[in-house]
Design goal:
This protein is α/β, with parallel strands linked by helices and 209 residues long. The protein is built from six helices and 14 strands.
Length: 209
């Protein structure tokens, strides 16, 4: 029986999926993409009776990163992002905060590398570098729980947009095919927007693969 429980919260103006990856045994959790509503997310953490240990960003766009700093300060935890996503986080034009009429910049405390394995909340979490939506986009794969958090790389029967600065459709499709479609078909996919899916479902019905 898996010790992983995933809670999903839809936050912000473009309906972004924020996830809590909760260890049911230790009551530790990892927050993935807190794009808005940090006060409400903090209250949810307290309601769960859990201890957050880290924030993982799949990429640096405003709708995934806006709530990270406040939440990190609230619980004295670190923010993780891919090593080539620093520029996107810190540039208001690249992080697309201009789309909501703001000029925001974001940061990460720790930068990760492709295939790096993180040990957080009692989970082994493998970093998968998946550029295309942004230059430094990544996914977080929990191999022992058969779960991947795909950000805006892979959606249910679709992929992320590539018309924003740093986007590349060829890179994105390559990332999906080479990094995600090679995962076990039973793997559950938790995307940055929309419905949960599986690798098996995407192999069958996603027109991009």
């Amino acid at each position: 029986m898996s010790k992983l429980k995933v809670n999903q919260y839809v936050v912000g103006p473009v309906q972004t999926n924020c996830y809590f990856a909760i260890n049911d045994e230790t009551k530790e959790l990892v927050v993935i993409d807190p794009g808005a509503s940090p006060k409400q997310l903090a209250e949810r953490i307290r309601q769960e009776g859990c201890k957050p240990v880290a924030i993982l960003l799949t990429h640096g766009h405003f709708d995934h990163a806006t709530g990270a700093e406040e939440l990190a300060k609230e619980f004295d935890i670190k923010i993780y992002a891919y090593e080539t996503e620093k520029e996107t986080l810190e540039d208001e034009n690249l992080n697309s905060s201009w789309m909501i009429g703001e000029k925001n910049t974001f940061h990460a405390d720790r930068f990760v590398k492709d295939e790096q394995e993180l040990q957080l909340a009692g989970f082994a979490i493998r970093v998968l570098f998946t550029p295309g939506h942004t230059k430094g986009g990544c996914c977080y794969y929990f191999p022992y729980e058969d779960v991947v958090f795909s950000g805006d790389t892979l959606f249910c029967t679709s992929v992320g947009r590539t018309d924003l600065p740093g986007g590349s459709m060829s890179d994105l499709v390559r990332s999906v095919k080479e990094k995600l479609m090679t995962l076990p078909e039973r793997t559950t996919v938790y995307p940055g927007h929309g419905d949960v899916t599986t690798i098996e479902n995407e192999r069958m019905y996603n027109p991009y693969v």
